[in-house]
Amino acid sequence: MTTEERQVSIAQWHALAQRGTVLPMRIPLEGDSMRPLIRRGRDLLFFIPLTRPLRRGDVVLFEAPPGRYVAHRVRRVRGGDVQTLGDHCWNPDPWMPSAAVLGMAATVERGGRRIPLDSPLARALGRAWMAGLPLRRGWWRCRALAGRCLRRMGWRR
After folding, report:
1. pLDDT over 90 for what percent of the chain?
2. CB of 32 within 8 A of CB of 71?
3. pLDDT per residue over 56-73, tens digit each?
4. How many CB atoms lie within 10 A of CB 63?
5. How is the chain split into domains, by residue range?
6. Where are the beta strands (DSSP E) in the chain?
7. By three-state DSSP, how is residue 70 classified?
8. Cystine design at 57: which of 21, 31, 126, 146 (Cβ 3.0–4.6 Å)?
């Protein structure tokens, strides 16, 4: 059995999603903002239209700035607004209306296996990673300081 793949732009997919006539969209990530839980070049995200209110820990797709699509994790939800943060980012994204979210990642494909992102384990991992933000900031600062010291001493990778 073969599956037919159609290529549509994210904007076209979103228009179809708003009409309720769309299937999940598979997107390979190009950046490192979701490392280490979702990795560029190895993982594919499957996005679906929003079918429920956003919750902390959901991985969502949005456009910021226009023409650039970003997949980040929901950090906070307040009223009709949402704040996101990439797993490999220091600072959260600016608040945006929930209506600006184009879709939500339902699964990640890794090594031929599909892993549901709404499972209790996946949600717990995402939330634990977000809770460790202060520790990650300290780790990155120590790592950068060590790198500067080693370069001054003449050590190179």
Report:
1. 24
2. no
3. 889 999 988 888 889 999
4. 16
5. 10-131
6. 25-28, 43-48, 59-63, 69-78, 81-85, 96-97, 101-110, 113-116
7. strand
8. 126
